[in-house]
Design brief:
two-stranded parallel sheet, single chain
Length: about 325
């Protein structure tokens, strides 16, 4: 890492945003001993930040999707206020933590989404492979982004379905506002949404998305996003030894473009996201709202997935439980 304080760099980038985020970044030492991280953020509006990749990426997500990050913090605090801080976090806090650290956002045709839910990997990356060109995928979780710095085959993200298209390399404010409303205790503890009826062509009632930007890629992918996101003095670059070539197909997960999204209107929060029932009595069994996805299996994300037998590895592409 560059020796410059990461919190200072993030604050400097935030000052250039047309809409500054609702938090500022402070060194980790500002967190009082004994105070919970989430509680400190809620009380002060400050995010404790260490000088490492994990916290840098967390800060970049705060800059890109601030409403969603703030919503996750408020959900965590509401659960703590109700149940306290115990040995077990409970289903809502667990889901919030998984989302914050490891979520990816996916808009995809129904046939692709259903194959992902059912872990039909042979279909998902075989006959349905062309449908990935009509999908949009954005990594949200900063722990998942950190893993992508040194990619390996089994990196698995927790996918949250977005019903309407979005541009991963464009203006994410509309997506951010929608997602902040869609994240609720009910949706975080319900099974993922499933298509009610598959049309004859297998692409859902409206056919494939008419996305003009599919998977937002680039020659340096995540590395470019990092080096352009913090252009203060000497930019923070890719750590020594990171194989840039293996990231060449990865999308700009946290781009700095501020171009507005055109012609896209996200649906009402929760309209198409998860299955019923939406809520369950406190203490009752709940569903898991995510679909697991070994992300380097996505077409265009890693050159290795074009090799014969790549998807035959059952230790990574695990079948659904019966």
């Amino acid at each position: 890492m560059h020796p410059r304080n990461v919190a200072e760099q993030l604050n400097a980038v935030a000052q250039r945003h047309p809409e500054p985020p609702p938090v500022r970044f402070v060194p980790q030492a500002a967190l009082p001993a004994g105070e919970a991280y989430e509680a400190f953020i809620a009380r002060t509006g400050c995010v404790p930040t260490r000088d490492n990749w994990h916290d840098l990426l967390n800060g970049l997500v705060w800059l890109r999707l601030p409403r969603t990050k703030q919503r996750l913090n408020r959900l965590q605090m509401a659960e703590i206020a109700r149940d306290g801080v115990g040995a077990r976090r409970g289903p809502v806090r667990d889901a919030c933590t998984v989302f914050d650290e490891n979520a990816a956002l996916l808009h995809a045709p129904d046939a692709l989404w259903l194959a992902l839910l059912e872990r039909r990997w042979a279909d998902l990356f075989g006959p349905l492979r062309p449908l990935w060109a009509h999908s949009r995928l954005l990594v949200f979780g900063h722990a998942a982004l950190e893993k992508l710095l040194t990619p390996y085959k089994s990196i698995t993200v927790h996918v949250w379905r977005v019903p309407q298209p979005f541009d991963p390399a464009g203006d994410l404010r509309e997506l951010d506002a929608w997602l902040a409303q869609d994240l609720r205790p009910a949706t975080l503890t319900a099974p993922p949404w499933r298509p009610p009826v598959r049309s004859a062509d297998g692409l859902g009632p409206n056919g494939p998305s008419q996305a003009t930007h599919a998977l937002a890629g680039g020659p340096n992918g995540l590395a470019t996003a990092l080096t352009t996101a913090l252009p203060i003095g000497e930019p923070i670059g890719v750590p020594t030894g990171v194989p840039i070539g293996s990231l060449h197909d990865a999308p700009h997960a946290l781009p700095t473009s501020s171009h507005p999204t055109t012609g896209t209107r996200l649906g009402q929060p929760g309209d198409l996201q998860h299955g019923e029932p939406r809520s369950k009595p406190h203490g009752q069994p709940v569903g898991k709202p995510f679909a697991p996805l070994p992300i380097l299996g996505v077409p265009g994300w890693w050159a290795g997935n074009r090799e014969p037998g790549f998807y035959d590895d059952a230790t990574v592409f695990r079948p659904a439980r019966r």
